[in-house]
Amino acid sequence: MADEVQPWLLVGLGNPGKEYARHRHNVGFMVADLLADRIGAKFGRHRRSVAEVAEGRLGLGGPKLVLIKPLTYMNLSGGPVAALAQFYKVPPAQVVAVHDELDIPYGQLRVKLGGGEGGHNGLRSMSKSLGTKDYLRVRFGIGRPPGRQDPADFVLSDFSSVERKELEFLVDRAADVVESVVTRGLEWAQNAYHGG
């Protein structure tokens, strides 16, 4: 059960480095960066993990948020997440992963607790390292690749010019979803955001 006193761990999944910054696979980092701006926090290297971390509160006296960007590349994200969950004493029910999702059309956001990883290596690594799949996920729809493009190439490419017109709005909306999950709960967030 979620505990108001314990912080929430928000994991933005992505790959470190400028060459990956605008890729579809990096929407988790984009959302984490925006949330850091919102709570007035700056990312810095954590001494206990291969990750950048920013800490702050959601609103005056609101819940504490620990934002994480693993620096191990997507496929090994779980190690830093598990280390920081242990360091901050955060139960899996208060871990939120923000990630790209091929099985959801571009522009749609979905929230869920647990479930499969759908071939997403970042989630697979997190589930293995945390020892459970029962953490929250904010799924940012990127849609399927066009034609016969390999999904691996698709996620490791930039958003199209048409998609970029909406990207800032969608990242903003995904940050709203994260805040809603933390402050109002999973069910409220699902009811509020699953319409579009």
UniProtKB/TrEMBL annotation:
Keywords: Cytoplasm, Hydrolase, RNA-binding, tRNA-binding. PROSITE patterns: PEPT_TRNA_HYDROL_2. Gene3D superfamilies: Peptidyl-tRNA hydrolase. The active site is at H25 (proton acceptor). Hydrolyzes ribosome-free peptidyl-tRNAs (with 1 or more amino acids incorporated), which drop off the ribosome during protein synthesis, or as a result of ribosome stalling. Belongs to the PTH family. This is Peptidyl-tRNA hydrolase. It comes from Plantactinospora sonchi. The gene is pth.
